[in-house]
């Protein structure tokens, strides 16, 4: 069973992932490149459904059976799950100082397409819309489990971003705790609301629209920008203009527009930075803290073009070598179609 | 001039490093491997003193002139400094929301040896002692400048840890702000002190000694351990047993013992994990907040054997695939000499 452990000095939680645990002596070997016959052995490709755990959810053609071809989006439990759904998340104290609990949660993989070599930048827009509709379905389902406090939807693209599997996929983790990292963000947003009477993210959107130089793209309901204090080159925020604190507040019919802006943004990044490794995460409030007037959901995209080094790890201050306004101008001017 | 910018929503600071700024179109090229004639072109090797800015500090043979050979430790300004010493750190507000200030600070490089291919694991112990004595000198000098709030001493070893220069070196940054990341750590330590009347790190040392299974090594005045909630495989803490909140509290004569434990630890990591990329950072209180009874300095070593992925970036919860007790046992059993 995986375990959640709390750092007694900082109160931050860590997952000790025993299901994917490696022997210490395996760690010096580095990350393997994909094998030559990558595609034949890929568990996520159409026709290989039997090499994954049974599907939890899918979009598939009428009349096709689960765990057979015919799907275009497929959600399965992660075979090497960081958290497992059995049990209850009770805390245990050791020596009056160290706290831990069972690693209770969900860890799912969302296979974004039956096609091995596609990526959001190169997929049809309709497929991207279906990915976001599927995210929304899983977010709603997992946030209803009273044991889970956070539902985190994220994507790792490429080795530097933490995946060696090329087949396009995202991951969804439901965790039984709200980490300090998120608590602090919420507290800061709350303080701003108390001082000004508005959501800080709503105010940021207004000011960024007025200034204009950090905006990459804008549609009726979304804005894409390089944040004023971007932590690394091309950190990008895709943010809904209307206020809502949880991702599932998005109406299903608006997923089409979100898919359009996400594909546009990722395509510009793909083209201008030569298909860089990247992560994206849907930032949303804890799942039981709904309709917060001071918090605002958004998608953070982080191209992994520079390494996080000792200074960042020790101080939490990031050094960014690209001026956000230059990054925004560069992406604005990158052709989309 | 570099610029410090504050994220209006999280209050975290970021350095926009204009001195090392790249054009956006340069970012898609990836990190270059060292050239074949690496050593001849290395600015840090003995004999190449003229290819660096003038030295700030050195340990060198009697009678040799600054910026000529004869040194065994040399501290120089970073040629591509993230912060610059001129000016004053006044804050500016933009549109009532965005705060920034001049990037005032110091950014130094400490060249750890005249020899290009050594690393702490393979250096003579005496040389490691001199490195720590030099850290201490620079820490004291920089923490006396009233403009600087944090002095951060760190090392990047290898590409994944953020350096492409093989010549052994560390860096020292003096920053004009205390980041939220550090504030939160201090607040948690303060809360523990208020609840229990002891420093949480002092208590942790006592409990870890009692339990024993996460200890890698111990000397009279230092303990080396894999923290209970290690964030990644082989995260290692080298911590002084006696209470002190700032690094410069170390007596010069105790640097010999610290050098012994650091070299022992890094040599065990070097041997057992096949010379992995790693970072270390000296964690210390803000430089004007001295003699805190609730905070405790230590050295954090982070081998970079796994990638930080979307989940960690979005949630702040790390997934660690090696059980800290197994990592400690493995390092304990790795021969040192």
Describe the structure.
The structure is a homodimer of 337-residue chains. Chain A is an alpha+beta fold and 337 residues long. Chain A has two domains: 3-180, 2-Layer Sandwich (HIT family, subunit A); 199-333, 2-Layer Sandwich (HIT family, subunit A). In chain A, 24% of the residues lie in helices and 23% in strands. Chain A has helices at residues 125-143, 180-196, 200-211, 255-272, 310-315, 324-333; strands spanning 3-6, 13-16, 57-60, 71-77, 91-94, 98-102, 106-111, 150-157, 169-175, 215-218, 222-225, 236-240, 278-283, 298-303, 318-320. A ten-stranded antiparallel beta sheet of chain A has the order 3-4-7-9-8-13-14-12-11-10, sandwiched between helices. In chain A, a hairpin with a 6-residue loop joins β1 and β2 (13-16). In chain A, α1 (125-143) crosses α4. The N and C termini of chain A lie far apart (48 Å). The model of chain A has no long low-confidence stretch (mean pLDDT 93). At the A-B interface, β2, β8, β9, α2 and α3 of A face β2, β8, β9, α2 and α3 of B. Chains A, B: Residues 3-179 form the Galactose-1-phosphate uridyl transferase N-terminal domain. Chains A, B: Belongs to the galactose-1-phosphate uridylyltransferase type 1 family. Chains A, B: This is Galactose-1-phosphate uridylyltransferase. Chains A, B: It holds the Pfam family GalP_UDP_tr_C. Chains A, B: Its cofactor is Zn(2+).
């Amino acid at each position: 069973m995986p375990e959640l452990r709390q750092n007694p000095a900082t109160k931050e939680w860590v997952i000790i992932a025993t299901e994917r645990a490696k022997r210490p002596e395996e760690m010096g070997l580095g990350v393997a490149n994909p094998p030559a016959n990558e595609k034949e052995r890929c568990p996520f490709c159409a026709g290989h459904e039997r090499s994954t755990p049974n599907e939890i959810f899918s979009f598939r053609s009428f009349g096709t059976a689960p765990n057979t071809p015919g799907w275009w989006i497929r959600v399965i439990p992660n075979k090497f799950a960081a958290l497992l759904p059995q049990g209850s998340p009770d805390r245990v104290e050791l020596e009056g100082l160290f706290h831990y609990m069972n690693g209770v949660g969900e860890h799912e993989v969302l296979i974004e397409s039956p096609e091995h070599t596609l990526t959001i930048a190169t997929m049809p827009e309709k497929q991207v819309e279906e990915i976001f509709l599927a995210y929304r379905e899983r977010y709603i389902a997992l946030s209803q489990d009273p044991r889970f406090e956070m539902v985190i939807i994220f994507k790792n693209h490429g080795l530097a971003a933490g995946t060696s599997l090329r087949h396009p996929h995202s991951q969804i983790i439901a965790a039984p705790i709200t980490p300090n990292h998120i608590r602090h963000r919420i507290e800061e947003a709350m303080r701003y609301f108390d001082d000004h009477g508005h959501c800080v993210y709503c105010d940021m959107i207004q000011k960024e629209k007025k200034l204009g130089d950090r905006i990459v793209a804008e549609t009726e309901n979304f804005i894409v920008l390089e944040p004023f204090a971007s932590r690394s080159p091309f950190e990008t925020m895709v943010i809904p203009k209307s206020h809502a604190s949880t991702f599932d507040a998005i109406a299903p019919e608006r997923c089409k527009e979100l898919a359009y802006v996400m594909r546009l943004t990722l395509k510009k990044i793909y083209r201008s930075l030569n298909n860089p490794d990247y992560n994206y995460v849907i930032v949303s409030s804890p799942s039981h803290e709904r309709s917060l007037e001071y918090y605002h959901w958004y998608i953070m995209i982080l191209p992994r073009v520079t390494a996080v080094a000792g200074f960042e790890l020790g101080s939490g201050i990031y050094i960014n070598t690209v001026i956000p306004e230059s990054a925004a101008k560069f992406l604005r001017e990158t052709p989309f179609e």
